[in-house]
Every structure is written in C-alpha cells, then in structure tokens.
Predict the structure.
Amino acid sequence: MKSAQTALARLDHRYVWHPFTQMRDWLRREPIVIVDGRGAVLRDAAGREYLDANSSIWTNLHGHAHPKINAALGRQLKKIAHSSALGLASEPASRLAQKLIQSAARCRAPSVPPRRVPPSLVRVFFSDDGSTAMEVALKLAFQFALRSGRSRQPAFLCLDSAYHGDTVGAVSLGHIDLFHRSYAGLLFKTGKAMSPYCYRCPFNRAKPERADAREYRQCHWECVGKVEQAFAARKKRGAPYTAFVFEPLVQGAAGMIPQPPGWLGRVAEIARGHGAQLIADEVMTAFGRATVTAPSLLACHQENVHPDFAALAKGLTGGYLPLAATLTTREVFAAFLGRYDEFKTFFHGHSFTGNQLGAAAALASLEILESPASIAARQLLAKTMREELETLWPLPRVGDIRQVGLVAGVELVKNWKTREPFPLREQAGLRVCAAMARRGVLTRPVGNVIVLMPPYCTTRIQAHKMIRALRESIINTLD
C-alpha cells in the first residue's frame, strides 16, 4: 500500500500542475493521494482514512459514493453519456432545467413581506463550473443593458474581497489582490463597495469578545451606507451601475465573511432603487449549504431577495461532475429573441453544456436534498457544528468563529484581544490544516481562516472529530 502511494505521488510530482498551489512547496513533500471515498470518509493510496471536512472544495453535498446518485449515473450510462446541446435537446437537461426553475420559484422567506413584485427566474443556461456560470451572467447582463437601452456603458458594482471565478470576466468582478493583480492588464474595471466584515470593520466600535462579531457589533450600518454612496456617486457621473454582484449571506474565498442579518435585503433594495439588476453568485451558498431549512435552493431567498441572475455550480451534481447553471428572467431572455439575421443570439457556449451524466446526477441530488431525511440531517449537523465550535473560544489564537448554515470559518490571530493577524508568510492556516491532516481530517484554509464545510451526511461523532482535530492542531501548531 505504501509503495502504491509513493508511486502515484511520484507521477503527480512529475506531471501535474495543481491549482492555487505554490508548486515549489508542493514538490518538497509527498502528497496525499486519494483513491476512495464513502460518505464523509476519504481513503488514500496507503490505506489511511480521513474525514472530508471541506466537502472536496465545497462541492460534495450528500457524501461520496451516494447510492442514489450512483444508481442514477448507472441508469444514464446505459443510455448515453453526452450529446451536444447545440441544435439538440436531451431528456435529463430538460428535466433538470424544469426542476431548478420550480425549486427557485417556491423558495421564499414568508415572514418577510415583498417590497416589490420580484422578478421570476424562468430560464436556465447550462455551463461547466462556477466561473463559467458567472461569466454567463455577466455577459447576459451586459448585453441586456445595451439592448434594453438601460445603459450605453454597462458597469458592475461588486464587493471588496469578492471572488467570482477565474475566467477573465469573472476575475474582473473580483477584488482580492492576491488572486487578481497578476491579470490586471487583461481585466475591465468594476466598482467596489465595502464588504460587511463585522470582525474587522473600521466602523465597529465594539471591543473583541468571545463570540461571533456579528452578535456584539456596535455600528450604524455604515457598510450599507457605503453601498448607497457607491451607487449615488456613479449615478452622479451620469453612468449608473448596471448590476450589483454579490454572494448571498457569506463571502466564501474572502475568508468566510458572513453578512449580518438584514444586510443583504437592505443593499438589494438600494440596488433596485438605482435601477440595477441583481446577480447572485450562489455557486457556494445554494442547495442548503448556507440555509438548512427547506425549501432552500437559493440562499438569497433567506432575506426575500430575488435576483435577475443566479449562478449555480459546485453542489449542483452533489459534487460528482462539473456542471453549472445560470438562471435568469423572462425579460432578459426576450432581449435575445429575434430573426436569424438580427443576430440577437447569445453567442456563448460549452462543449459539454447540459451533458446527460451531469444532469442525471443533479436530478438525483435535488431529490435527496428535498427529502425529509436530508432536511433533518442538515439541521442536526448545523446544530452539532455550532455546539462543537463553541469549544474553540477558550483558545487565544482563535479570533472569530462564524457560521452560516453548514459553512463555518475560524479566523486565527496572534492575539484575540487586539485582533492582530498572522502575517501570511507565516502560513498559519496551512500549518494548522497540515496538522489536521495528520489527525485524519482534511480541509483547506483561506489565508488565516480555517474552513469547515462537511458533507450533509456527516455524523455527530465525525463532526466532533473534525473540530477536536482543529482544536488540537491550533494548540500544538500555534501556541
């Protein structure tokens, strides 16, 4: 077993280039080579077992090798794996589009009265991954603004520390210098508004406490005011923003930055008041990840925010296959209808758009997601995580613990009383995650923030082991 692990590791070192990885560091150590997975457990080529604490980079919803998804793929393989969506339709893709639209239509927050008649999502454009789903939303919004006469120079307002993918358009929407500055010469400019990062907000007058910063913050919603100022300033220049781009409830790659309750509803209303469309990046947050109650396809519906575009990916197939979808409105779709020689066609596509295998997996995943058993499991896991995370507060290297549904981020600091961060060169997050791996738990940090985002099938015992490994790793690595 060890020899197999070593042989595969050598192949990796010789031929593979890994994403978001400093390959010089990578080549200095033998990587973990995953060969098997069942439920929340992964197994490497040497036979060692690990808990998948970040759902294989935030994608796996129901656990590895889920029998219902496996069976759905098996049935589809007996028919066809893929045929082109250019000039042809397919049964699984058509049924999936219907299911997504129906699920989005019934997801509302009934306790919050609608401020206006919301747009209805009625069309699905399939693509490959989260980046392409956002690229589609961006291109559609850009062309719609021109064709509808809303703007001669479409412009987009995003959030500070935003990350929306790695295609050129999606990178242009992002505002994380570490990721994006290398491509500055390729990108178009987008506006940036303040992110509601309560823990490090300059307007939060509260001293650090041993609790989620959203709970004890002292401010006057200056973060909302900054969004209003951004829209007003652009309008004063005579070129209003065309659309507002956001991740609902929590910004993922920014460091699991959660939005205080009410923030999203407020800024969405501001955007609407300035005539801007809403583009919801639900790549990470949808499918019960950020909201554990049903029905919860889109996280933005938690605050009764109804977007004009919703980008879905990651968990769409339950984490099995690359597949993405961009949902949009009848009004947007109508702007692309015309005679052949008018060239109103949406000139964008992907070879594997709406492929049958991915659609079959997604249909099975949605069926599992809406089952009473899955809903109960998600609610129990969220509660268990909240209880277990409480045990980390006594650690002096823990500055903030923030949880949104089944997304958790633990921010590591040098001194919790001053919020002093670890310099990135010290690799505090990476070192803690390496120590967790030695204890049989796999996850990946975002800078100094340790991410916990387990599959929905994770048991109480497994959740306890994940957070115990995190606690021990922090103590033994940073103290």
Notes: Residues 76-369 form a domain with the Aspartate Aminotransferase; domain 2 fold (CATH 3.40.640.10). The longest helix spans residues 130-148.
